[in-house]
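A protein record in our archive is deliberately plain, so that people and models can read it alike. The record that follows is passed on verbatim for readers who wish to inspect the format.
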Amino acid sequence: MESSIGVDLARVRASSKPESGSWLHALPSPQMGTLLDDDSLRIAVALRLGCDICEQHHCICGALVDSRGHHGLSCPKCAGRFPRHHALNDLIKRAMVMANIPCVLEPPGLSRTDGKRPDGLTLVPWERGRSLLWDATCVSTFAASHLAGTARVAGSAAENAARLKHQKYTDLKNRYLFVPVAVETSGVWGGEAKALIRDLGRRIASRGHDRRSGSYLAQRLSLAIQRGNAASIMGTFGPGMTRGGLLD
């Protein structure tokens, strides 16, 4: 069982990072796609404040889920992982287009021994004459494997995930500028991810868009993380127990 003290330390340290609360600054507009639904808002607030989210129950994977619901954030069967991953990459691609930087998701033809592809590639040079290659990942701040680090230093799980991404794409780094977009379920970002989003925001503003474009992009990425968290936690309930289940 996860240490409640360690969980609270990790939560408080994560909350001290400005990017973890970017979703709180987003204008709640359904027309702009920045309005959280009731479940997502409730779960986002509960995760930030350390409140109970649900009653104790068994996840669809068989594991016991406690009242804070953190198991769903790292469960391999959680429903929010893939939609969140898609949303993060889609937002980055849209931002690239706004900055007049053509790019492609899951670029084909890049040499990988395991057949897997990175998430995105710019089709023109990004810096130092090389195109930008990025790969996004979201790891749980409260997973047992990360808790010892995140309880000491906010963002340690994201930084560790970024290092693993660098190792994964070592063979491509001699041709491309690789940046891991590593974030945590608490909303904390890795250092390279923050630098990329700041740079992208500046490039968007330089094309004549709002000077706050970088902040708006950060807000949308933060919202995508919170929506993924909610989907993951709600996904621990079995069929017929939620609005998307058999009893609807």
Observations:
- Helices lie at 4-15, 38-49, 71-74, 81-98, 144-150, 156-168, 191-206, 213-234.
- The CA atoms of residues 56 and 66 lie 5 Å apart.
- The chain has a mean pLDDT of 92.
